[in-house]
Amino acid sequence: MISVYNSFDELPREIKEKARYPNQSNxxxxxxxxxxxxxxxFAEEYELRIYLAHDKxxxxxxxxxxxxxxxxxxxxLTNYYSMEYxxxxxxxxxxxxxxxxxxxxxxxxxxxxxxxxxxxxxxxDSLGYESxxxxxxLSGFYVHTYFQYENMYYAPxxxxxxxxxxxxxxxxxxxxxxxxxxxxxxYKVNIIHYTKPDEDLPKAxxxxxxxxxxxxxxxxxxxxxxxxxxxxxxxxxxxxxxxLYIDDKPIAAQLWITTSSKALIYKLxxxxxxxxxSAGSILSSNLFKLCMNKDNVDEIDYGVGSENYKKDWxxxxxxxxxxxxxNKQTLRGLSNIFFMSLRxxxxxxxxxx
Length: 353
Hints:
Elements: E1 2-5, H1 13-19, H2 31-42, E2 47-54, E3 60-68, E4 73-76, E5 88-89, H3 96-108, E6 116-123, H4 127-138, E7 141-154, H5 161-166, H6 170-186, E8 189-194, H7 201-213, H8 225-236, E9 239-246, E10 249-258, E11 262-270, H9 279-295, E12 299-304, E13 316-327, H10 331-352
Parallel strand pairs: 4-6, 11-12
Antiparallel strand pairs: 1-2, 2-3, 3-4, 3-5, 6-13, 7-12, 7-13, 8-9, 9-10, 10-11
Helix pairs in contact: 2-8, 3-4
C-alpha cells in the first residue's frame, strides 16, 4: 500500500520519528534534510510529493521524497545543495527493491500519467540506483542513465590525524608548514569551532556569510538555506563549522557535517585577500585533526565534484549518476524518447568518425 503526502506536517508522528536523524543515520536522507531543503528552496514554486510504502501488515517500510512543478514531471527532491539521493528505508528488515517496486508501480499507475521522471545524485553502486532503474523499466518507462559527478572520500578514516597527515603529498605538507609560519608570525591568528546552538552561532553565520561573499564564489541564491542548515545541524549535534580569524577578522570558513560514522566537508571558502597565505588549507588540516582525533569517524567525504585539490586529502572516488525516465504511454514521453534516441545516435556517429 502507498500513501502520498503533500506536506511534511501531514506525515504521521511515528513516521516522522523513524525518518528523522539519527533514526535515519544518513543526514542527507533524513526528514530533517528534505524538509529544510524544501522549505528554504522549493516551497514557493514546487508541490511536494512524499510516497510512503507500507507492507501487508500496514507497517511503514520506506519513503521516496519528490517534487513537481507542473504535475507532468516528477523530480527527486534535490538540487545543487544535495549530496546524494535515494529511496529511504524505515526498517532494517526490508530490501530496497521491495520498497522501490511498490512505489514505482504506484507512480506508473497515477493519473494523469507522468510524462517523465527525473532522479538526481544517486550513487551508481547503490541498491537504490539499481532498484529505481530496474523498476522504472519494468513499469514501462524508457530509462536513460547518465554520469553526473565524482564524489571523493577517505576511508577507512580510523587512523590518527598524525598518521593520516604523514601520508599526504609532500607539496601539500610543505606548503601548509611554510604558510603557517608566515601567518602566525605576521598576524594574530585564531581558529574557532562552532558546534552548538548557543549565542555564538548568529556571529558564526554572519562571519561565514562575510567570508563567502568576499570569496571567489557566487553569492548564495537562497539566503535562508545556510543559516537554516547551520542551526539545524547544531541542534542535532552534528555541526562542525571552523572559522579562521586574522587580527579578529574572519578570513576562511568551512562547514562540515559530522555524524557518528562520517564527516562530510560541505562548504568551504576564504577571502581573496588572503589567498596566497593558504588559509583554506591551514583550516582544512585543523578540521581533519578534529574529526579524526576527537569525532573518530569511519569516513571523510569531500562532497560533490572533482576539484584537483581534493585529491591531496582523499584516497577513494565513487560516482553519482542521474536517471531520466520517459513514459511510453504519453505523446510528450514518446517525443522525448525520440529526441533522446536521436542524440545518442549523433554521439555514436561523431565518436566513430
